[in-house]
Amino acid sequence: MTRVNLALLVLIGCVAALPWFGGAYALRLGTIACLYAILALSWNVVGGFAGYPSFATAAFFGFGAYATGVLLGDGLPLPLAILATLVASLLLAGLLGAVLLRLRGHYFAIASLSLVEVLRELVNNATDLTGGGMGLNIPLASGSGILADATFFFYAMWGLLLATALMVIAVSASKLGFGLACIRQNETAANMVGLNCTLYKSIAFGLSAGFVGAAGGLYAAWVHYIDPSDVFDILYSVKPIVMALMGGLGSPLGVVCGAFLYLGLEEVVWRNYIQIHSGVLGVLIVMLLLLLPHGLISLRPGMFRRKAKHV
Amino acid sequence: MSGPKLARCWFVFAAAVFAAVGCGASASPVAAEDIVRFGAPLPLTGPLAPEGIKQQQGYDLWAEQANKAGGILVGGKKYKVEIVYADYQSNTPRAVQTSEQMITQDNVNFLFGAFGSGAAKAASTVSEKYKVPTIAAAASSSQVYDQGYKYLFGTFTPNDTLTTPLTEIIKSQAPDVKKVAILARNDLFPLAIAQEMEKSAKANGFEVVYFEKYAIGTLDHSATLSQMKSLAPQWIFITGYTNDLLLIRKQMVDQEMKAGVVTMIAGPAYQDFIDTAGESAENITSASWWHPAERYAGKDIFGSTENFVKLFRDKYHSDPDYGQASAALCGALFQLAIERAGSLDRDKVRDELAKLDVVTFFGPVKFGPNGQINSLQPPVFQIQGAKPVVLFPPAIKQGELKLGVN
Amino acid sequence: MLVAQVLVNALVLGCLYACIAIGFSLVWGVLNVINLIHGSFIVLGAYLAWGLYQSLAIPPWYALPVAAPLFFVFGYLLQRLLLNRVIAAPVLVTLTLTFGLDLILNNAMIYFFKADYRKLSLHPSMGSVSLFDVVVPVDRLIATASALALTAVLYLVLRRLRVGRAIVAVRLDRDAAVLMGVDVKSIYAIAFGFGAALAGCAGVLMALIFPISPLTSSTYLGKAFVVCVLGGLGSVSGALAGGLLLALVEGVGSTLIGPAHATTLSFALLIVFLIVRPHGLLGRKGFE
Description:
The structure holds three protein chains of three kinds.
Chain A: H1 3-15, H2 24-49, H3 57-73, H4 78-100, H5 105-125, H6 127-130, E1 136-137, H7 146-173, H8 175-185, H9 187-192, H10 197-223, E2 225-226, H11 228-231, H12 235-247, H13 252-272, H14 277-291, H15 303-307
Antiparallel strand pairs in A: 1-2
Helix pairs in contact in A: 1-7, 2-7, 2-10, 2-12, 2-13, 3-4, 3-5, 3-10, 3-12, 4-10, 7-8, 7-10, 8-10, 12-13
Chain B: H1 3-24, E1 35-42, H2 49-68, E2 72-74, E3 77-87, H3 92-104, E4 110-112, H4 116-130, E5 134-136, E6 152-154, H5 160-173, E7 179-185, H6 188-203, E8 207-214, H7 222-230, E9 235-239, H8 242-254, E10 261-265, H9 271-277, E11 284-287, H10 305-316, H11 322-341, H12 346-355, E12 357-360, E13 363-366, E14 380-384, E15 387-392
Parallel strand pairs in B: 1-3, 1-4, 4-5, 5-6, 7-8, 7-9, 9-10, 10-11
Antiparallel strand pairs in B: 2-3, 11-14, 12-13, 14-15
Helix pairs in contact in B: 2-11, 3-4, 5-6, 11-12
Chain C: H1 2-31, H2 38-56, H3 60-81, H4 91-113, E1 128-131, E2 134-137, H5 138-160, H6 162-172, H7 174-179, H8 184-209, H9 217-231, H10 236-257, H11 262-276
Antiparallel strand pairs in C: 1-2
């Protein structure tokens, strides 16, 4: 366990102390912060480790939201529904990945983007199962008071974040992580030395989607009502990328820091500049890419500079 | 550190400080004496903006009238009305977040529901959790009220109260109409009402030859309309919001589609629909939840329907349609409930709302057990000579159904 | 006859799709940059046409020569000052950068113009023509003819003018072009300028037919994507082929399985093409 990864776990541990410092609204922010961190960490596996620019995060987020929504509607208890969603997302992504990951560069980006559109329209049209454009009602998972409800979901999302972080740390320390790094640097060469690239990429894609799906499911249970254009929103694909770029591509600690920083900025802008908030996000992205292409993590002196992966 | 690195550090530092300060600073207004605050999350920008602005007009008119009379009487003291607006940009998750923010940060006493069935339903969970009485001014689909919530009320009657009288009129006055084609926007209200229409049509012996949904944001309907045309329906029923309906109507004219009856919900009630569609709006039928021609002697602050219409005309220089009327009604209903409860206690006001059985300028108001109003008879009307002419209910009928839409 | 009507609809719509996509295809093919601002350029062009019509009663076809140079300059400067810095960066960076720029432009449009839909209604209205039971609205015909004219102009520029040959050279082999003395940086900016100009002109034509709102920009962008992948990058004929194929699939699909599925079908087709034939119908193999 490297020092950076330890720092990551410590950071996540600190976040768990939030309920002592804030009320329901702070908990809401905290839940979203954990959600963003999960999305960013997961994306990092396929985008940062493997180097494949995936825009499919929203597709699996939406898939997870609807899967859990439907399962909860059928009476399954929440933990079981989330677990089932995680496995389903993992498998779906693994299968899709085997096909889509044959593409590279631009084409992969577009294919992953189209996945979002296709899944959204499929859900939109399966009116009997998902309610289609009319949205899906999700029964209230815990009937108690507001604070108890908010605390429950905060800890649930936090728990998922911890699981995602452990997964990412495990991957980066394992042969899979090493293989992904090889693929990122030169896939053709990796192929030539005998690495089963398709398998590794698919597993990475699956892992990145599993926790995103579970997070989507938890999100659905939290908000009680979802509809296709909300959960299959392309911004759920783009924001994790911005967070990862902000924090430092490839570094889990950087990515989580990027997620928290991004949320802070988003809240500020939305609170005070609601009319132009997406414009401000755009400015942020542009400045980030022009001024800080290696993310926050590249600012740390000394030992971390070695670990900064180049974009 | 070198130049560019220093610049980068400053950038990040500034961003972090910005974020921390922003999160810390909250936007709650200074608490003043004797003010009752209503939260109104609205889509003031985005595709639903035209509808959102109408609601704002209704709320503002009511607030102005209430404050002119000194405020709302709460157990002996008069409280001024203040409405807190926020724009959720026609985005449903934002509507939910805005509603919560209004309760927790802006300290509103009561809420007006978000616009439209979808957003109203989503945001109602927040009202229910925080136990804040909410009246939705523009949510008609019964699906909005099926979650068993106690704090949500709505001033639009269920969708079938629009489709049933419409179907009956066509059946009795247009015997040649046999085939119906239905095209619905894939969204909560438009799809729900289209499904009601299908049920109603089949129950009355019509043949539904076409029933399809179009995606939100569709720009080109030529293929759909061509197919519909080839099936030669005598009655064409389209649902969507104003923008969709205008677009579809234009493309129908492009394709030279003619039918005996063309019904569109929900746009033709608005003057801007009639103005923009011009000649092509002639003889289009529609239904809505209120019409300025109605005559009710209300016990609310507006009194009679004519008085409401006059006040609206004086302020906005145009006639009110059901959107603005419903919004003003919500304000007036809160006022009645608060005055009867004699306090701003949310549970007491909620109970008074549930007990309400009163005639208002909008019509008789009584909420059913699920919170949705069930006491109205929505009017059916047709655009004749660039003006909406009421065909039903008989008490306020202004004209007869004209067949033939080009 | 339904079949004939559907085919004619598709033909007309296909040319419009091609017009939307041609600028996008050029930029992608030459600069290897997926320009996510493209949709917003189109909408901005539509607003320009609308504004000119509302205030000065200038009909859209006269707005074309106004739009083209304006957008060319805008695109040229954008590329020269901003995009050039990341021109060699991986796809993630360029995609995200153009996404960010698009957010800015889109938000600016919503702020200044409001998100309400505007309609450019010509007075008097132009009506429709019908031949053997097939009806085509005249405004679409004019837009289609203009779209074809624009693509023809681009084709001639690429084939006949020096700057056009230089653009094609850079697209075929950047390094060889440098060796031949082509100022690649300048060509990139010019190509991007052309792309922006074409988008602006496409917007002017769209204003005739479709409602105008910043919210429609993602719809246009989505169509441009699919057309480029289906037809192949960087070539005029590719855009036309892609546009016609897309319109056909949408029209036939809509008739057979309902309009709700038309979008799904087009994106599913996109994915299939990416996997099976990524260079599209008329593209060149091996060009990534």
